[in-house]
Amino acid sequence: MYKKISKEMTAFLKECPTAFHAVARIGRELEKNGFARLKEQEEWELKPGGKYYVTRNDSSVIAFCIGTELSDYSFHIAASHSDYPTFKIKEHAELEVKSKYIQLNTEGYGGMICSTWFDRPLSVAGRVVVKENDRFITKLVDIDRDLVVIPSLAIHMNRSVNDGCALNKQVDTLPLFGGTGIRKGDFKKLIAKAADVAEASIYGSDLYLYNRQEPSVWGAQEEFISSPHLDDLQCAYASLKGFLEGQHEKNVNVYACFDNEEVGSGTKQGAGSTFLHDVLRRINRCLERPEEDYYRAVAGSFMLSADNAHAVHPNHPEKTDAENCVYMNEGIVVKSHAGQKYTSDAVSIALFREICEKADVPVQFFANRSDEAGGSTLGNISSGKVSLNAVDIGLAQLAMHSAYETAGVKDTCYMIKAMKQFFSTHLKVLLAE
After folding, report:
1. What is this structure's pTM?
2. pLDDT tens readout for residues 108-143
3. In the list 13, 78, 233, 344, which could disulfide-bond 239, CB 3.0-4.6 Å?
4. Whole-number Å distance between alpha carbons of 175 and 237
5. Sheet containing 36-38: which strands, arranged edge to edge?
6. Under a CB-based contact definition with an 8 Å cutoff, are residues 96 and 83 in contact?
7. Is it true that the peptide bond before 231 is cis, omega within 30 degrees of 0?
8. Cα distances (angstroms) measured from residue 385 to each of 8, 341, 370, 379, 388
9. Strand 224-227 relative to strand 51-56: parallel, antiparallel, unpaired?
10. What CA–CA distance (Å, rounded) separates 351 from 354?
């Protein structure tokens, strides 16, 4: 089972070089399983037993499956994110160096480990906005070949490189695109060719670098998986699998995958936006339920905020808490924080433990060292718009925000099982006051 799931997930990861590609890939999987696509700007017609999904900005997606017994329904929500730290290409994309090189002009997106992007094959993917017959349409772009490299400065020119070296993103991390014979303007020509459009028809673009290195399953017992952007597409993939396999007639089951978590979620398509709130309100209204039913449903609803967690590092075990620390392949991680950067509390932890016991899935507990600051995740950000019981969970991994991250192969299966159990359970009956 582990090998089968790992093979399926690596195929998924390879199709998702950007958040736009991830949402398109998720959409194809939903449609294959009978979900109808909705558009926010159009009127919705929903019915009990129906399966639907909607996207925002082509980089966030919310899917939902409506139960058939809605007299006392609640929302069961799993949230993950589609983006990851990388380099975004600026509007004026090309920089010329001494008439011999063309570099791509980039800026950092999110908090990446910059050094991990050096000296490896990279390429460019994203979306372009094209004018066709006086209308603008979006096209996905993926230059599916080794295209650029960010070259290191030789140790002979930087003798202190192994003693720690500050990197300047405007100087040190610009990728090399071409040499003699390449001129300014050639990059846009390449993008236009990939999109199969005329250069003049491209009016806008969101293009990013991505790591071309293939995902790999490795280790003495093939127990580890390494790949670009495991954070957070490992959770996005596992949540989707569990969502498609689980159902309950008293639930409106919801799968949400938001963009822009790595830059704070404060965009129109991020977890801090109205996207989730808008969709849940429209579901209740389209089912012709009174507004009071919506508030009752939310009060009895539950969210699994799924974003990966830091495993104990074999070279630096001192970086994690002595007891509240986690390991790859030892189960789903429950994250908590006294300062509420994670949304987990006694109630939500208890409910999630019950789910995992029923699913026969092991659970681990993570807290940051008390002298270290941790990052916030989707749960407490989204609760500013839709306040409900929620628990922050994830899968243990190494090298978070590296260009090539590592996790455990068993944990993906654990998450799928737990998600299936969650979506097959009506938790409202357990939420006693």
Report:
1. 0.95
2. 999 999 999 999 999 999 999 999 988 999 999 999
3. 78
4. 30
5. 36-38, 51-56, 60-66, 251-258, 74-81, 302-306, 389-394, 332-335, 363-366
6. no
7. no
8. 34, 16, 29, 11, 10
9. unpaired
10. 5
